[in-house]
Amino acid sequence: MNIAPKFGPAFELETADAKGLDDLKLQAETCTRCDLYKNATQLVFGEGPRTADIVLVGEQPGDREDLAGKPFVGPAGRLLDQCLEEAGVDRSRCYVTNAVKHFKFEPRGKRRMHSKPNAGEIQRCAWWLGAELEILQPKLVVALGATALYSLLGPKVKVTAERGRVLQPANHPPVLVTIHPSYLLRIRDEEDANVNRANFVKDLTNATAFQTN
Question: What residues make up the domain containing 201?
Answer without folding.
Answer: 2-210
